Amino acid sequence: MQYQSRLYKKSLLVISALIFSLNIHANECAAVKITSANPQEHDVVYELVGHNGAVAEGHNKHSYFNAVLDGTKEYYLAPGLHTLTFNQWDKRYYQRFKRGLQPRFERTLPSSIQMIVEKNKRYNVAAKSSGKDNLPIFSIESIEDISSDLCDEDKVTYIASTKAREIQLNNNLDYKLKHLMAKMKTIQENNLFPLEFNWSFGAVFDTNQNSFKTLAVFPYSFASKLKLTSGDKILEINGVDVKSITSDPYSVLYGLLGELGLGHDVNMTISRAEKQHKLSNKYLPAIVPSVNYKTTDFDTVQSLTNATAIPENIKYQYNNLMVEIAEYAKNNDLDDTAIMIKSPEKYDVSFGITGKNTTIGNKSAFMVTRITENSPAENLHLKQGDIIVSINEQEFTGAASVILASNIRALEKNKVYTVSILRSGIKQVLTGIYTPILFPKFEMTVDLAERSLALNALFDLANNPMEFTKERKLRYNYGIELYDYRSSTLRTPRSHRSDASWRSSSKPSSPSKSSSSSKSSSKN
Predict the structure, then answer these.
(1) Domains of the chain (ranges, CATH numbers)
(2) Could you say which DSSP state residue 435 is in?
(3) Does the global pTM surpass 0.90?
(4) What gap in Å lies between CA 197 and CA 496, rounded to an integer?
């Protein structure tokens, strides 16, 4: 969780170097005021530092600091949807900060909420410490009517997010998203994820061999930009021979990648089909768009949603899939808007296996090459390499994949069924109760316009690293630690060295299962 929060903090701040929140002077607005809900926390103040993925303005005025300190600060928002990010400060350190002194960073990591506001309303929001990473939980305590005169041309009003356009994903992305949402609903029914960077390398490696053999590469990740492919073995990174390392080689690999700066050259030597190849590219993380989703209360307008952290392994899958969805939308000229994805509740009619047709003697059969996590196939204890010869004692009289798919569709929910297999040449009969995955009903909004601005800022910063030194004052203006000032480049968090994406056990991890299969494979 701490790793996740650090990544988000750095994500917001890199983008802040070149992007400031869009604001207008308007006659219609809503007011938002944040106070502490805990009486014992009277020495705590909350400051708006981000709006819709960019840095909020107005921090350089004494009147602003005084209003934050005495708890009277109001933020003016145009009617509509807004993502707001706050820092929680101890008043003593915020006063040092106000006087231009180097503040001690006794404050929480940024916390985000999403609000839908109406014109001529004041929203009194209370923040209560959750005890989890010391991050607050926000709630609306009351809503009051205000005069339209409150919103005059002298006040900065933050504009609302772009109205979402409903789209349909392609079959592959749609299926992946439904599987992910089945997991997400069990963790958090409604949630918000602010825009962030995906610092992971984007590949899964086999740990069962004394080599860095690639098992899978995520689309649009840095590994894919390097043109790394499944089966490649990494030999060198920036001149360092990974095989010559006597200590834990994975720790060294994480270390090498942890020292990369934004826009730095990465040179990799790999072995592919017994031949050595050179791969190179400039290091740039992927940008995960801001997303909100709901799996309940579809007929209710939810005025406030807290950003709630989810387990690292699920967040890893989420980050990679959201980058895929964002790139899919970009390729369809939708990168300047927000998109909405809706899906009804339905059962997954697939069995959860990928494989290929084969024969046993003169009979058709189906060889399993991959099994989807939590699928009926996994629940039946099918394994990679199993050869399916029949289902419910019905053998395959033609192309096994076609008949297998037809037989699976004929299975009845919660009824007993059998699958006959050959495992290591020995015939076995597996018996189970058919329990297909229930895909939940959900609505998801993805902000691509915000991501497009962030991508432009990222490229500018990578090509002009000295911009970091020019913006170093932001560290004090916004009370957030922006960069590693020992160099003029942003450094990736060292904590990503423990990223689960680098390791794979004998049972392939969920990221490798979600990667696309080869064209010759069949999925059931």
Answers:
(1) 22-158 (no CATH), 203-284+496-505 (2.30.42.10), 353-436 (2.30.42.10)
(2) -
(3) no
(4) 12
